[in-house]
UniProtKB/TrEMBL annotation:
<feature type="domain" description="Outer membrane protein beta-barrel">
    <location>
        <begin position="20"/>
        <end position="197"/>
    </location>
</feature>
<dbReference type="InterPro" id="IPR036709">
    <property type="entry name" value="Autotransporte_beta_dom_sf"/>
</dbReference>
<protein>
    <submittedName>
        <fullName>Outer membrane protein with beta-barrel domain</fullName>
    </submittedName>
</protein>
<feature type="signal peptide">
    <location>
        <begin position="1"/>
        <end position="20"/>
    </location>
</feature>
<dbReference type="InterPro" id="IPR025665">
    <property type="entry name" value="Beta-barrel_OMP_2"/>
</dbReference>
<dbReference type="Pfam" id="PF13568">
    <property type="entry name" value="OMP_b-brl_2"/>
</dbReference>
<keyword id="KW-0732">Signal</keyword>
Length: 217
């Protein structure tokens, strides 16, 4: 399934220029808030490059948007002692980094002479690169203990042989924003993961809200 999805997206990326009339490139940077199921939201950020391709033989305004982004998707989860008499609270927090490839199709609506409304959506794939899992434990005497549980959440396994965090991610997302003077883009986005995110919670799915700025050359 993973190979099929990745192959489909890469094939789409290679075929898009054939149907394109205008191609331009840009750079982008932004912040995100990761809200995976059962995990606490934290803020991350990312940088990357993007390409836009205007389609031939379609009403002016249709375009494809693809980008390659280096992003952090931090998360944490907090446990209470619950009568274990071992600690008061135990918090795990991680800052995994991904290489993300979203491929979207959208439309640009003219708002004024220099402003356009952008709307697009489509699938994405991501590959986890690295990121530590750390902990903070508040003991019964209120002393705090900190340490590193795993040096890389994508390669480490728990006591049952399960991966701590899946290296590959895929899902779909939507974007809405404004383009000013055909150069500056201000974009709000949401991505929803389709595969399991974190092994300790079998139904966990990635949810990512983002705010980014792009400059088109």
């Amino acid at each position: 399934m993973k190979k099929t999805i990745i192959f489909t997206l890469l094939s789409l990326a290679l075929c898009l220029p054939i149907a394109a009339q205008d191609v331009r490139f840009g750079a982008l940077a932004g912040v995100n808030v990761h809200t995976a199921n059962y995990l606490d939201a934290k803020m991350g950020f990312g940088i990357g490059a993007k390409a836009e391709l205007g389609f031939k033989n379609l009403t002016e305004g249709w375009y494809a948007d693809a980008s390659l982004q280096f992003e952090s998707h931090p998360w944490q989860v907090k446990f209470d002692g619950l009568g274990t008499n071992l600690y008061k609270t135990f918090t795990e927090h991680a800052s995994p980094w991904y290489l993300m490839l979203p491929i979207h199709v959208g439309y640009k609506f003219p708002v004024s002479q220099n402003v356009k409304l952008l709307v697009n959506g489509g699938p994405y794939v991501g590959m986890g690169l690295f990121g530590k899992l750390k902990y903070e434990m508040v003991k019964l005497d209120d002393k705090t203990e900190e340490g590193t549980t795993y040096d890389n959440v994508f390669t480490a396994k728990d006591g049952f042989g399960n991966k701590i965090q899946n290296r590959f991610a895929w899902g779909a997302g939507v974007r809405v924003g404004l383009e000013v003077k055909d150069k500056y883009q201000f974009i709000l986005g949401y991505d929803r993961g389709f595969n399991q995110f974190y092994s300790n919670f079998g139904n966990s799915r990635m949810g990512l809200y983002s705010l980014s700025f792009a400059y088109m050359f």
